[in-house]
């Protein structure tokens, strides 16, 4: 039986210079024709726990919170990665993470507040103990989900996916005034 996992993805608006050694480890450059229509892969530096037990056929739900110079948006369901295959990432021969390749059924989601759904999710640790996904309400979502977690049940996210699919999508653009502020 397939399992559901959840992980946080940092989304920050910034100017990025391809192949700059100072870029964040998660800002790996993709080919320009990859990833726009659907996710191509997801990477993690985790080598133990849930990150190490994901297998082909499992689903990784990605949550993000868009950060910009103007502030933060609400946490959002970012993508569903239906895992096709897994590559062990190595640095100087040592395992340093995993790259989960997405199957064709994977998808991106438009910005939509996932806060209420996150409160209805629980996780299972390696000892089989079940706990609330958001144990500490005072922690930022990125800190709560910085390590991949195994969900006890992915149905609340599947239900949210149906709600999102039933919504009209609108692109909103705000004109910016260029110059000094």
Structure description:
With 181 residues, the chain is of the alpha+beta class. It has one domain. Helices cover 13% and strands 33% of the residues. It is built from 4 helices and 10 strands. It has helices at 50-53, 115-119, 141-144, 155-165, and strands at residues 4-12, 41-44, 59-68, 71-72, 76-91, 94-102, 107-108, 122-124, 130-132, 149-150. Strands 1, 2, 3, 4, 5, 6, 7 and 10 form an 8-stranded mixed β-sheet that branches. Strands 8-9 form a two-stranded antiparallel sheet. A hairpin with a 5-residue loop joins strand 8 (122-124) and strand 9. The model is unreliable at 176-181 (pLDDT under 50).
Overall morphology: globular
**Largest sheet features:** 8 strands, mixed
Give the number of DSSP strands. Answer: 10
Percent of residues in β-strands: 25-35%
Low-confidence stretches: 176-181
Radius of gyration: 17 Å
Question: What order do the SSEs take from the amino end to the carboxyl end, as H and E?
Answer: EEHEEEEEHEEHEH
């Amino acid at each position: 039986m397939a399992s559901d996992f959840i992980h946080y993805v940092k989304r920050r608006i910034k100017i990025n210079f391809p192949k700059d050694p100072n870029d964040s480890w998660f800002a790996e450059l993709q080919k320009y024709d990859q990833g726009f229509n659907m996710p191509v892969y997801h990477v993690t530096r985790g080598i133990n726990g849930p990150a190490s037990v994901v297998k082909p056929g499992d689903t990784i739900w990605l949550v993000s919170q868009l950060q910009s110079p103007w502030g933060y948006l609400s946490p959002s369901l970012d993508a569903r990665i239906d895992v096709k295959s897994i590559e062990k990432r190595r640095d100087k021969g040592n395992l340093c993470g995993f790259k989960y390749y997405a199957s064709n059924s994977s998808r991106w989601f438009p910005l939509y507040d996932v806060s209420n759904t996150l409160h209805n999710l629980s996780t299972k640790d390696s000892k089989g103990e079940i706990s609330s996904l958001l144990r500490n309400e005072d922690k930022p979502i990125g800190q709560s989900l910085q390590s991949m977690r195994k969900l006890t049940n992915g149905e609340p996210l599947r239900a949210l996916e149906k709600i999102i699919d039933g919504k009209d999508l609108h692109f909103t653009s705000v004109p910016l005034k260029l110059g000094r502020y």
